Amino acid sequence: MxxxxxxxxxxxxxxxxxxxxxxxxxxxxxxxxxEELLIIEKLTKVVGVVQCHxxxxxxxxxxxxxxxxHVILEFCSYGSLHSLSVFTKPYDEHAAFIVIRQVAQALxxxxxENILHLDIKESNxxxxxxxxxQFQTNCGLLPLEFxxxxxxxxxDLSNKQHVLNKQNLVYHRGTPRxxxxxxxVNKPVDDIFKVEVFSLGIVLxxxxxxxxPFSTDNMHEEARDPNFLLNFMNSEKNLHKxxxxxxxxxxxxxxxxxxxxxxxxxxxxxxxxxFNMCEFRLKRPEILERAK
Length: 292
Description:
This protein is of the alpha+beta class.
């Protein structure tokens, strides 16, 4: 399909992918699909989100009584962060920063729309081409953009029914190994947006260490330990012998804090000492020269 480029006003070809689902009024899936479509529509034009170019209802080609929903989405030609990370060594801090900064900013934009993603992980972070980023030092002078995708378990906090019961809203929603501790037990949720900070912390940890920070069968006990990160780095689990900077360690500990009250917010992530340090280092004279 084609659209007008906002930069130069010229018509350009846009690659898209079509997500198709059959609508059956007798199935709960129809309701879930409708909720996801409403969220996708609400997030149209939100920076850092895979864009929706249209939604169509058409008759099933084999059954005229059945309807299909076609969601036309932006095609991200470089795949997902998961597919990229599988074949790479652990990211250095600057490479991890470039990814996490874009995702954190995208997530902040989504939260401003009162939307919770609830399934932040590498396979839901897609990579597209963005020519403007090759001139941005914070993007590592790479023409890549990391975008949030897949809103299947997301929730709109503008929905009064969801606001009335915050615990049920996040309870067991998402991918278990990326869930915040309060999502696995029936505990009060004070700041509902902080569940996403925990998931983002897991992504950052995996980029740096190429593994999960907590075991599946002992997650709560390990996460309660304030020295969990130091214990991990000194154990055999740290296969690549990674030693992050003190600023990075401090941020990871705050993002992965067991108690919500000890966990940082997204705005605190974006203004953390580690972010400031990485931004400063990416503005070295030799890098600025390459950006010209």
